[in-house]
Amino acid sequence: MTTRSTRSPRRRTVVALAVVLIVLGAFVVRLIDIQVVNAKENIANAMSYGLAGSQVLAGTRGSIVDASGQPLASSILDYDCQFSPENVRTITRRTATGATAKVRWPDLADEIAAITGQTGDGVRQIVSDALTADPHSQYAPLKNGLSTEQYRALMELGADFITCTPSPSRTYPNGAVGGNLIGFVGSDGQPLAGLEQASDKCLQPTDGTLTFQKGKDGVIIPGTESEKPAVDGGTLTLTIDLDLQWYMTQLAKQATQEMHAKYATVSVVEVKTGKIKAAAEYPTVDPNNVDARGSYLYSRIFNATFEPGSTFKGITASTLINAAGQTPLSTARVPSTVHFANGAVVRDAVKHPTYDYTLAGVLIDSSNAGASVFSQRVSTQTRYDYLKKFGIGTGSAVDFTGEAHGLVHPAKDWDNQMRYDTAYGQGLTTTVPELLGAYGAIVNDGVKMPLRLIESCTKADGTVVTPTLPKPTRVISEKTSADMRAILENVALQSTSYSKMIKIPGYRLGVKSGTGQIAENGRYKQGVYYTTMIGFAPADDPQYLVAVTLDEPTKVTSSSANAPTFKKAMTQVLKTYRVMPSTSKPKMLPKFG
What we know:
- By secondary structure, the protein is an alpha+beta fold.
- It folds into two domains: 60-85 and 108-171, Penicillin-binding protein 2a (Domain 2) (Alpha-Beta Complex), CATH 3.90.1310; 242-576, Beta-lactamase.
- It has 19 helices and 23 strands.
- Strands 2, 3, 6, 7, 10, 18 and 19 form a seven-stranded mixed sheet that branches. A five-stranded antiparallel sheet has the order 12-11-23-22-21, sandwiched between helices. Strands 1-8-9 form a three-stranded antiparallel sheet, with no helix packed on it.
- Helix 3 crosses helix 4 (120-133) and helix 11 packs across helix 14.
- It is elongated and about 140 Å long.
């Protein structure tokens, strides 16, 4: 027999179960309403509060370093910070003693302003304006470009309604030293000039992403994050020696100012490897401040062409020796003015009687008439072919951004005058890299080495990639190269214009200079020239080439203007690389037969 006492607990159990089922059923109905019936509306509402979010994880642009690893360009992180205005409120933070303290928004705004360099009123106005426009505003910019120290100070305030995103920016620790080579990037991080642009494939990072969900208060919900890491850019290692580059930049500046020239360049190449150790010019550009007055944003070394003048007599002589059986002692009768049968006329700078010039003497005295007379001993097509073999008009293996190429007209287009003008460097143009490549071949046993400015790119994973370069090519024989080294050394020893100015005690040098005319609007400018001096040392075992150019020097208008800078540059190169003094004696060559 069931008693009242046993029925009561059973009834209570049934009632409780019924209540649970009713509550559970209500939850199920509500869940169906949220996730099925009104799913689209609820998702849209959630998205309006930014519950699903993502953030770009910026990779760091790679560094550019010199041959020893010294930085020429690197990236630093700035921070762009913003508010979630709807969530701005009084916060609670712990004091130094461990107690809790409330910080009201107006006071917190003053603390924020002290960090960011703004005013408290300005910070409060940012939030006020955002909430006036939208009471549920989740975004208002605080300030961009804050330093790491400022970012950390903001985070230490404990205001979770302030968020910051890293923004990489570029810095150039050596300022204008190498600025024309390195180039620069724009405010958007895009490369705009120089190696920054040419080697962007190496330097460019790959951004990552962070996806997450966050609550209405803007706080990321733990466990919802999913990250695709960023990949940093590679490190671009140059062949440049930073200290040497700095010194050559000072020399270029000094030469420009002392000779009252438009600009100057000083270049240094390692003969046996083709590595460019310095490529300096003035005016230059500081990539940290490209808008500064007087900045030149590009590289005249790589982007400018000029008529080389008498430096090309070295190429003419090499061609004659290699292709026409001439020697340094071959002779030709040369008056100061030559009237050729085809009507062409060539004059030397100084009147002189008819000389029985040796080929060496033509280069020592830099005789235009002599170069023209000798040039007849080889066909114009052969001379053209050798110009191309030496790399004139082909640019360089550096392939610098916007690199210029010299202009050499085909031999069939040479008129009566041009067939002689090209023998002494007129009627055609070249560039500094082309001239360096040609003289490198002349003195390097006849082998032309491709010029190099980039040593390697080291990717973020440690992979080292070296540039693909053309193979070295033989242009002239070893014997021709030896003859040319002897001739060019005698130019350095016997030139009446500058031999004493370039002498470096203990070292044997070879050199050739050029004074090229400057074309403007189809005519040559009067009284101003583009002057060049290129030389090597030691003459008995060439290790380094140095080239100095000046555009329109007016204090001294001939290539003698380049001599003081050439001597200082070569002296510093020999010291920097500890090149031992010469122990052998030069062979003196006669100017006349």
